[in-house]
Amino acid sequence: MMKFAIAAILLMPMLASAVQGALLPLKLAKEKGFTGCDATINGAFVFVNGRDVRATVAWFDETKGDAIKVTTTSSNPGDNLFVEAEFRKQGGKCFVNATSIITSEKSCAAFLAESPAFNVQYVIGEFTWTRNANGVLMYLMGAGTGCIAIYQLNNKQPQQN
Q1: Could you tell me the residue range of the domain that residue 130 belongs to?
Q2: 91 exposed, middle or buried (CB, 10 Å; 0-12, 13-18, 19+)?
Q3: What is d(CA 64, CA 80) in angstroms, rounded to the nearest whole number?
């Protein structure tokens, strides 16, 4: 059975830097024995910042040295961010599958206009599917007068020892 642990709860002061929030997932992963993927973990959580940052980790005892999931939330006035990333080590590489969800008070049209790197691929019902040149997917869905943006990314990097 998967163990869910609230590994740390961090209430950051109003002036906390983005770097502090982004470093929390790496700290938690290392505390659980998942090491050697610092750059991959930091890259997945680079946008985690805000007045209030929370994080949890989930793992299986049998695989915690080579697989772990980290979930964070952070909040800023008008924008909230949820990031969940699963990390795996295999063959000297660090792999990540990450989903980030941003809620914004801006309309989806305004959100897309501020994201020129993303090109519309499909519009299906309430969802607008977009992709950037690096293969990152962004799905947009209206929520009242605001927008929910969902990003998905997959990446791999050499493992660091």
Answers
A1: 3-158
A2: exposed
A3: 29
Q: How many CB atoms lie within 10 A of CB 73?
A: 17
* Domains: count for the chain: 1
CA distance 3 to 38: 23
CA angle centred on 130, ends 125 and 131, rounded to 5°: 155
Write the pLDDT tens digit of every residue in 34-88: 999 999 999 898 888 766 888 999 988 888 789 999 999 988 777 789 999 999 9
pLDDT digits (tens, 9 = 90+) for 113-141: 999 999 999 999 999 999 999 889 999 99
- pTM beyond 0.90, yes or no: no
Would you call 22 exposed, middle or buried from its count of C-beta atoms within 10 A (0-12, 13-18, 19+)? buried
C-alpha distances in Å from residue 61, one per residue of 2, 32, 64: 8, 10, 5
CA 14/CA 126 separation, integer angstroms: 35
The residue type of 125 is: G
Distance CA 52, CA 40 (A): 23
